[in-house]
Amino acid sequence: MEDVKLYVERVGVDPASGADIRIARRESTSWHKDIVAELINQVLDESEAFMGAQGLEGLHVYDVMLGIGLTSSGIWPGFSLEPDTISRISACGASLDFDPYIDVVPAHTCDIKTLDDFTVIFSAQGFHQQRSVIATRAWPS
């Protein structure tokens, strides 16, 4: 089993004091297909509770960022997000930071075509659970 250190956190700037603050953080030492999305939703739930009646939209004044950090070996560092999760991230005006450090990638091929060091693929789910690629962007391009 690979050694995994994964965190998802919501940070921002306190509008009253100007100080950097951590609003929510979740961590995991395991890796599976849905773990990043699960942790993101837990952080979003905690952030929503932090804001109370204002909800996620109230976080705009905190200039928030959703940070995802991953240190591991022997995994392909990728994740998928459901439209509802993306909408919740957008509701608070958050920027997104994904910071993976992978020591050794697996010997087997990745289940998606990788083009460069970093690839973002937007896809849509169609009939019979089939995915269609809408756009692909790679860095460096």
Can you walk me through this structure?
- This protein is α+β, with helices and mostly antiparallel strands.
- The chain has two domains: 5-108, no CATH class; 111-141, no CATH class.
- 18% of the residues lie in helices and 36% in strands.
- It contains two helices and six strands; from the N terminus they run ββαβαβββ.
- It has helices at 35-51, 83-91; strands spanning 5-13, 20-28, 65-72, 95-102, 118-125, 131-139.
- It has a four-stranded mixed β-sheet with strand order 2-1-3-4, with helices on one face. The chain has a two-stranded antiparallel sheet with strand order 5-6.
- The longest helix has 17 residues, at 35-51.
- The mean pLDDT is 83.
Features:
141 residues, 2 domains, two-stranded antiparallel sheet, 2 helices, 6 strands, globular
Spatial strand arrangement across the major sheet: 2-1-3-4
General form: globular
Indicate the proportion of strand residues. Answer: 35-45%
Terminal Cα span: 34 Å
Mean of all residue-level pLDDT scores: 83
Order of helices and strands: EEHEHEEE
Number of helices: 2
The structural class is alpha+beta
Strand segment tally: 6
- Low-confidence spans: none
Q: For the report, how would you describe the main beta sheet? A: 4 strands, mixed
Estimate the helix proportion, in percent.
Answer: 10-25%
What Rg is obtained from the alpha carbons, in whole angstroms?
17 Å
Protein name: Putative inner membrane protein
Organism: Salmonella enterica subsp. enterica serovar Montevideo str. S5-403
